[in-house]
Design a protein that fits this description.
The chain is mainly alpha-helical and 280 residues long. It has helices at 8-23, 28-42, 69-72, 75-87, 97-105, 117-127, 189-200, 218-228, 237-240, 268-277.
Length: 280
């Protein structure tokens, strides 16, 4: 990849960008522009700090019309915001990536983007399979679950194949829209906000790679829930397991549900978020 070693976190974020561009049926060039921009702005890390109020992969500023922090810290939503402004540029597809990136970002350092075109193109090459221009999806297709390309990022994906989102008849069936008996929300206001967001998603389907709002996978729900509380997380379980400060297993009260078979189907959303509430 042009001599650059990318971490699991960086690769996962790049894969998220590429996947969203394919879903929107935009050409590979858009992926190179977006990834090169994220390399410059954040080194492909979803960070909760920056110059003034800059946040996230693209260091978008809420005060400059990029949306609230929760949106800016959600890699999919932030990518959508970037792409919306990119494709609104006349002739963007024929611009040099550095020129297009600067037109969107309006950086005080416009010369930083062009040198990252090569590393970005090499990284996109590893993630993009197929034609440079994705085949249009049939009318009415849900792009969040459609597959125009297979991403190499599957190696970083949550290993849950979606079984936790299934409900079958017979004994032991639980109500996916209710909480376990005795549930108490965290007292910490940040954790409470994150868990509250997760609770609002109860009943939505498991979608591989989903980061909302229609469906989520395990790491996608974590990402969106903590972004709603202003906490930036890396994408993917491989990177998220290293986020936060580890605590002793016996001190993780809410997360005891995560490993409970009796609650596994019901708290797929609640459980993954509760696990993080004790470590973020």
């Amino acid at each position: 990849m042009d001599g650059v070693d990318w971490t699991g976190e960086q690769t996962e974020n790049a894969a998220t960008i590429v996947a969203r561009i394919v879903e929107r049926q935009l050409p590979r060039r858009a992926a190179v522009i977006a990834v090169s921009t994220a390399i410059v702005e954040s080194q492909l890390r979803n960070i909760a700090y920056g110059d003034r109020d800059s946040l996230g992969l693209y260091q978008q500023r809420p005060s400059q019309g990029w949306g609230p922090p929760a949106r800016v810290l959600n890699p999919v939503a932030a990518t959508d915001s970037f792409l919306d402004r990119l494709i609104a540029l006349p002739g963007w597809a024929s611009m040099a990536p550095g020129t297009a990136a600067q037109a969107v970002q309006r950086s005080a350092f416009p010369d930083r983007y062009a040198p990252q075109e090569g590393p970005a193109a090499a990284l996109v090459e590893q993630l993009w399979v197929g034609e440079d221009n994705p085949v249009p999806l049939p009318p009415g297709t849900d792009s969040s679950v459609a597959t125009n390309t297979q991403l190499a990022s599957t190696v970083y994906a949550c290993p849950d194949s979606g079984g936790a989102g299934l409900r079958t008849g017979g004994a032991g069936v639980v109500d996916a829209t209710t909480l376990p008996p005795g549930f108490t929300a965290p007292t910490d206001p940040v954790a409470r906000t994150a868990v509250g967001y997760a609770l609002a998603q109860l009943g939505k389907p498991y979608v591989w790679g989903g980061t909302g709002p229609a469906g989520f996978d395990c790491s996608g729900l974590m990402l969106a829930s903590w972004a709603s509380a202003g906490v930036a997380l890396p994408a993917g379980t491989v990177s998220q397991k290293h986020a936060g400060t580890p605590v002793r297993l016996q001190d993780i009260a809410p997360a005891t549900w995560c490993s409970s078979p009796a609650h596994s189907a019901r708290v797929r959303i609640l459980g993954t978020t509760a696990c993080m509430s004790a470590t973020a």
